[in-house]
Amino acid sequence: xxxNVNIRKIVIWLFVIAVASLTIATIAFFSTENYxxxxxxxxxxxxxxxDEVTTFGIDQLKEIYIHSVSSDVSVFSTDxxxxxIHFYGRSATALKSEKALPKLITNLEGSKLKIEIEYPKTLxxxxxxxxxxxxxxxxxxxxxIIDTASADVDISNLDLNNFLCKTASGDLRIESLGSNNLTxxxxxxxxxxxxxxxxxxxxxxxGDIDVGYRVFDNNVDIKTISGKVKIxxxxxxEFYLKTNTVSGEVVAKFPITIISFNKMNQLEGTxxxxxxxxxxxxxxxDIYINKF
Length: 292
Prior knowledge:
Elements: H1 2-31, E1 46-56, E2 63-69, E3 72-78, E4 83-93, E5 103-109, E6 112-118, E7 125-137, E8 143-149, E9 153-168, E10 172-187, E11 191-206, E12 209-213, E13 220-226, E14 229-233, E15 239-247, E16 250-252, E17 257-262, E18 266-271, E19 277-284, E20 287-291
Parallel strand pairs: 2-6, 2-8, 3-7, 3-9, 8-9, 9-10, 10-11, 11-12, 11-13, 12-14, 13-19, 14-20, 15-19, 16-20
Antiparallel strand pairs: 1-4, 4-7, 5-6, 15-18, 17-18
């Protein structure tokens, strides 16, 4: 009986110690500068304005790397001599410290310019509506790499050697772009390309892709898991075509010399001289080859 009483006392003391330790830890946590917050004071929850601008020259620059999570990215051409980076918007947070705000981080590493958005590592930064605009001089002809998550990307009016874009959960729009090699890797997002010239290689997990060529003298290789593929070409375009879709149909508006054909979802053939190739492989999605 005495042993049972002692065990009961030990359990009670352990419980008291655990509760006290948790209370002390909680007080210490919320007493720090980064996490001071009164849940009863609504004035703590305010919108903080963000407006950062920085510039870089393009001399000796071979690559521009852009990384963003949750902030939409727009890349424009400019007649100015320098690259201009504008990060702006509002961040709604329960914390008044500047440490709770997202920040623009830029680094020039040799011939590579890195542009990134750094988000605060706090528990109470709960919403942000911020944008990243980048203005590229028209004379820049090298490479751009964009890597985003939960953000839309818009790029227009540039002529590049290489353009690589990786997105996860976000739409991509490209307009009036020339690129020797355009490489896309997207998951859960649509791709809309207008007035394009260059080779295209695209891998999509979930999303439609719509490509419009100004002049076609290139190669196209598109793979999708779930999504529609549509390519618009001038009526005098010539190419080798090979398509395959597990669940979907193939519609081609060009007169095709058939090499092989299997029902409505597999097609191989040529239009004119087949020096340029279009290869499209989808699991679930229709394929359209249109002419204008």
